[in-house]
Amino acid sequence: MSMTSESEEMIMPINGVDSPSIDDANSGGNVGGNGQLKKGPWTSAEDAILVEYVTKHGEGNWNAVQKHSGLARCGKSCRLRWANHLRPDLKKGAFSPEEERRIIELHAKMGNKWARMAVELPGRTDNEIKNYWNTRIKRRQRAGLPIYPPDICLQALNENQQTENINTFSSSEVLHPGFIPVTNFDVPDFKGFEPNQQIYSASLLDIPSSSLLDISPSSLLPQGIHSSYPNKSLTSTVHPPKRLRGSEPFICGLTNTIPGGIQYQNSGSSPIGQSFVYSSACDHNSTSDHATLSSIVLSGSHAGLNGNPSSEPNWAMKLELPSLQTHMGSWGSPSPSSPVHSPDSVDTLIQTPPTEHAQSCNLSPQNSGLLDAVLYGAQTMKNSKGNNGYNHMTGHSYLHEAEWEAYGEQLSPLGHSSSSVFSESTPNSLDERRFADTFQGYKIKEEANNLAPMHYDDKAETTNQMIFSRPDVLLASNCFGPMKDPTKDHSLLKGAIETYLGDELSRDCKQMDTGATSATQGHVRDSCTWNPMSTV
DNA sequence: AACACCGTCAACCGCACGCCT
DNA sequence: AAGGCGTGCGGTTGACGGTGT
């Protein structure tokens, strides 16, 4: 909607664009005669009054505006009007590409923290950003495109990982030589998910992989949880929000809405810890090399989290699209074995139907697409070995937003939904494979690049990190659910991973199998070694 | 021309937090 | 400590305009 500037409104009070129905400040159906406050669009006259008042008295004390200026608006409304439209430092007009890019990055980091994002974008309001994002989300959803470009996802993932490492070290008091503190970003939280969207991890993706992993024995204890994921350390140091709302969790999905309404941070009680114990049991006797593998089980065991295998965690119910939430409708994309999606159904695109793979391993239908992604990724990787198509990244970002958008545009329905791209052609279409290859290749390289400075000399460990910080893999873990048959499940996944990464990982997977089996017995052993970062 | 659909935007609402008394 | 008040934040809604049928 074209919003004229406040000055314009003041100069041209007539026929204000944003005052379609009322031009008289005191007319209009929403204002009552008995001192009732007016609602609805602001008129130019009202704007003028407000501007004058604020100019004279400054911001704040908004209730006084109504009292002293005669405006029939509540304080909140005045504040909102001023903040979103009348403030002199507002930047009007469409977002620039740079701003758009920034918004995406910020959302990947922060989730729906519009106000904090606005701080990072001078002249822009939280409302503006929120509207933009929601519009963008809808557009991409409709097109079946991922919300975040891969490079941004990975960037955020890496940052998350680094931040976790900080917390890991702080909690374990073990400093990694190559550790580089990253403190000025806030980890997004995962308040929830939209019911019609795949959970690809909105929460889990955002959960720093190692934060899931680096659960030391102490961290399983109430105080340990606190020490491991101190909120304060996550608060932006650059633009500290005036106030952090209740949910500024570190472990996004888990922190905010542990099933059953348990707040992670204040959970002194055992359920969380038990959840971790149970859900990550798979690797509890394993070495750090396999810690990452545990994340699969951990993130996958909703059952472990709420003790009810059939119940869906709260956080899965509503999608905030927090950081790194990927709409695997595109990323994971329909696997070759997946049914072809209807081009006109984004939901079906996003929620990949269960595949034979999924069904074969007691997979949660909601998450089967993830395993699909893994399996298909493995297949793709296998097929594309020797194909350097995805190895061309030279810098930090493999796909820049422009490229990504361009890519998206290819997929977008200017008549073609992304699903149509996948469905119009054969499941093995070049585009589809290219898409998968692109991301996979990027991921591996990216992870390797970022972990290398961390002195991850152990190749295998690095490999594990690479894999399991992968959103889709993390999420694919969901398919394991209650872990009725860990061996079977792991072998299935292992196969995919072996193909995916080769022998190095295979070796680790073998070890993991052992660990997983014993770990499902629910014993936490040496959690110090559990933390991959603490094992130097 | 009429209608339906969709995207965009402004505004509202409920809730939560911090401060003050 | 408890309650009131002011403020900020995020989700949602409704109006409007553009576009397609």
Automatic annotation (TrEMBL):
GO terms for molecular function: DNA binding; DNA-binding transcription factor activity. Residues 34-86, 87-137 form the Myb-like domain. Pfam families: Myb_DNA-binding. Residues 326-346 are annotated as: Disordered. Residues 333-346 have a biased composition (Low complexity). Keywords: Activator, DNA-binding, Nucleus, Repeat, Transcription, Transcription regulation. One of its GO terms (biological process) is regulation of pollen tube growth. GO terms for cellular component: nucleus; pollen tube. Signal peptide: none annotated. Its main location: nucleus. Residues 37-86, 87-141 form the HTH myb-type domain. SMART domains: SANT. It is found in: Nucleus. It comes from the Eukaryota. PANTHER family: TRANSCRIPTION FACTOR MYB33-RELATED, TRANSCRIPTION FACTOR MYB65. Transcription factor. This is Transcription factor. It comes from Buddleja alternifolia.
